[in-house]
Amino acid sequence: MAPRKTAKPKVTKCPDCDGTGETTESVRVGARKGRLTDYRQNAMCITCWGSGEIPADD
Length: 58
Known about the structure:
single chain
């Protein structure tokens, strides 16, 4: 008999970062009010922790 193959877990793309693992955040300046600027910076997606995948629920 041949050994059984284990099935890979089903994963889906993260809805927040579209599978890239990164999101863009607005840059804030100023100590008290935190004004928004027109600049953007990349940040790690906190939903998938930068992997770009979320395990599917069975």
